[in-house]
Amino acid sequence: MGVCLRRAIVGVFPILGFGVDPGSVAAGQLVLNSYGGPYEEIIRSRIIEPFEAETGIRVVYDAVGSSSQDYAKIKATGGRPGFDVVVMTAAQALQGCQDGLLEKLSVDVIGELAALASRLSDVAGPCGAVHEVQYMALLYRTDQVKGVPSSWNLLLDPALSDRVILPTFQNVMAVNLLQVMSVMNGGGLVDNLDPGFAVMAKVAGQSIGFEQSSAILESYIKDGSVWAMPFWNGRAQLLVDSGAPVNYVRPSEGTIPLIATLSVPVGAENKEAAYRFIDFFLRKSSQEAWVAGYRVGSARTDIVVPEELRDRQIKENELDQLLLPDLTVMAERMAEWSERWDRDVVPAAR
């Protein structure tokens, strides 16, 4: 997912750069805050339109802000941001629960929560319904990189000097890559990140710069100006499916999953409709449609996954092989890490 896509207001609202006014949404409607780009196209056809047809509830699509920006809005408005359901990540869902700004989601109200793998639900906490699972992959150009790479150290290969691009620190991919590099070099996921920062400065020296948006990041590898970069596996698979000369791997040193969630702000105007939407999204048929369309994984273990994706996704029995940082500790230290990134990593870029 890519969770850091550039967003713009779409649908019935003009592109003004403002959020949705909750007073403008009548009964029988709900405001869904989510992403633009390919995500929007797929969620409209695979989830929103079937939901509207079944329930008669009209979904107003609000595609403003990244996950971190959306949570900042929820916090700034005391849980009344003007949308009823928000797509974020487990990190924001946990923070929102801790701050008392997101509703706790109960299986009594959202029955399909019972079908989710408890290991993933526990990571997201009681305020986040896990609707997809991705992981940070190593995306590369098959016409420029020889063979199939197996290590994140590809990003340090001198042959790729000026052929790497990195996410900004506001994109959690940057944080995850920092953590992976830290573990690879004797550090930890949330403690002792010194080795990670040292290596990331070297990677930055290889790079042509930083971009926050996944859509912009992928444009560099599509046009051939970049030959390798970290990227979410679902979005990477969409590129492979498009026929671009790219492929992706889960490197041998491990990776960190992106657990994407649906949450309801405490001040949402249309909570009943919001709960119905989440329940619909988590339904077996909906999850199968979403996985097939957006090429991601699911927290449900009973769905039918397209054959071409089965070996590309994280299976429940592989969760122990993943690097799983403590998201609560991450939230506490993110500001400190961001300052150090700006001091030690950004200046090292070419």
Task: Give structural notes.
The structure is a single chain. With 350 residues, the protein is of the alpha/beta class. The protein folds into two domains: 22-133 and 258-314, D-Maltodextrin-Binding Protein, domain 2 (3-Layer(aba) Sandwich); 135-255 and 322-348, 3-Layer(aba) Sandwich (D-Maltodextrin-Binding Protein, domain 2), CATH 3.40.190.10. The protein has twelve helices and nine strands. Strands 1, 2, 3, 4, 7, 8 and 9 form a seven-stranded mixed sheet that branches. It has a two-stranded parallel sheet with strand order 5-6. Strand 1, helix 1 (37-55) and strand 2 (58-62) form a beta-alpha-beta unit. Residues 1-27 have low confidence and may be disordered.
Give the second-level CATH assignment, the architecture of the largest domain. 3-Layer(aba) Sandwich
The level 1 CATH classification of the largest domain is Alpha Beta
CATH topology of the largest domain: D-Maltodextrin-Binding Protein, domain 2
Kindly, what is the distance between the CA atoms of the first and last residues, rounded to a whole number of angstroms?
A: 28 Å
- SS content category: alpha/beta
What is the helix content? Answer: 25-40%
Cα-based radius of gyration, to the nearest Å: 20 Å
Count up the helices: 12
Number of domains: 2
CATH homologous superfamily title of the largest domain: Periplasmic binding protein-like II
The residue-averaged pLDDT reads 89
Low-confidence stretches: 1-27
User: Number of DSSP strands?
Assistant: 9
What is the ordering of alpha helices and beta strands? EHEHEHHEEHHEHEHEEHHHH
**Shape label:** globular
In what range is the share of β-strand residues? 15-25%
Largest sheet: 7 strands, mixed
